[in-house]
Design goal:
Number of strands: 8
Bound molecules: zinc ion
Strand content: 5-15%
Order of helices and strands: HHEEHEEHHEEHEEHHHHH
CATH class of the largest domain: Alpha Beta
Strand order of the largest sheet: 1-2-4-3
Largest sheet: 4 strands, antiparallel
CATH superfamily of the largest domain: Homing endonucleases
Shape: rod-shaped
Radius of gyration: 36 Å
Oligomer: single chain
Helix content: 55-70%
Distance between the termini: 70 Å
CATH topology of the largest domain: Endonuclease I-creI
């Protein structure tokens, strides 16, 4: 799951920032919601830190902070011993003019200075901002399965139930039917259908990833078509064979009676003998074995007459 998620994230962090400040704020708000924590260092001194395992996300967040609130930040790189010495990038936004305003603006702080879980509806009034918010959410807490894997799955993880519910509501507004599940202390908002994954990726601007999924969809579609045809042909073949088996049985029954096939007129006898000789031939093939060859419907007609002879004989003999 991680490899393709990283490809999507790389594409997103390299895309240019949204034009409108409203969208930039929405994307930033989503990132801070998931990755941010607020610190209070006496005398109303606030600071905010944002921690991510992806350098590109840290870089993008720095750009978003600058473009929206002109906030300065510094990046610290830590090595996480537990995670196999993976790097973590910690963005520190020290107390400065504009920080408190941003936190209030983005609807992120409760009265006791904890980060607010829910999504501020003012931030996501327009569709442009809604998709920007989704992009931020995916950058901060999203993952997606490789398109070649069959179990399509895209999820975003958050620790806040309010945020998860808000996200589902937001995605619904954009025509994405997301679901929530709970894993330990985390909430997962997820999508399972390939169509929904494609729509999500295209909304947030991951166009290269969209192409990858579309390719797979085309290949899958072709494969299904081939299978459908094979099944249809097999079914038809089975039908032909079982009809031929019945014909053979009927003819053999006639043959076993005292008069044998001599009760049949010569033309019907010709067809009956050919059927016995080529029990697996299709109607078309059987028609061609006749001298001169017959049409398919003529053979069909003859076989029907043979059946009637069989029935008549059975009735007369009182069997
Ligand atoms: Zn917008």
């Amino acid at each position: 799951m991680e490899k393709f998620s990283q490809i999507v994230r790389d594409e997103l962090v390299q895309s240019s920032l949204a034009v409108g400040k409203h969208c930039i704020k929405a994307e930033l708000a989503a990132i801070i919601h998931i990755l941010g924590s607020l610190h209070l260092a006496g005398q109303q001194r606030l600071s905010l830190s944002i921690s991510t395992g992806t350098a590109g996300v840290a870089r993008r967040t720095v750009q978003l902070l600058k473009a929206s609130y002109e906030l300065e930040s510094e990046v610290q790189v830590e090595q996480n011993e537990k995670l196999g010495k993976q790097h973590r990038y910690k963005l520190i936004i020290p107390d400065q003019e504009g920080l408190a305003r941003m936190i209030v603006d983005l609807g992120m702080m409760t009265r006791d200075h904890a980060l607010e879980g829910g999504i501020n509806p003012d931030l996501v009034k327009e569709n442009c901002c809604r998709t920007a918010f989704l992009r931020g959410t995916f950058l901060a807490g999203g993952s997606i399965t490789d398109p070649h894997k069959k179990n399509y799955h895209l999820e975003m993880v958050t620790q806040s139930e309010d945020f998860a519910n808000g996200l589902v509501y937001l995605m619904n507004l954009l025509g994405l039917k997301a679901k929530i599940s709970c894993r330990k202390e985390h909430y997962l908002v997820y999508l399972k259908e390939i169509e929904a994954l494609i729509r999500f990726l295209s909304l947030i601007g991951a166009h290269v990833a969209v192409l990858k999924f579309q390719e797979i969809r085309v290949v899958n579609g072709l494969r299904e078509e081939v299978n459908r045809r094979l099944n249809w042909e097999t079914a038809n073949l089975e039908k032909t064979l079982s009809a031929a088996m019945e014909q053979v049985q009927e003819i053999e029954k006639l043959q076993s009676e005292s008069a044998g096939l001599t009760i049949l007129p010569p033309k019907l006898r010709e067809t009956a003998l050919l059927r016995l000789e080529y029990p697996e031939a299709s109607l078309k093939e059987l028609a061609e074995y006749h001298q001169p060859s017959l049409s398919k419907s003529a053979v069909n007609h003859r076989l029907r007459l043979i059946r009637q002879y069989g029935k008549k004989f059975t009735n007369e003999a009182g069997i």
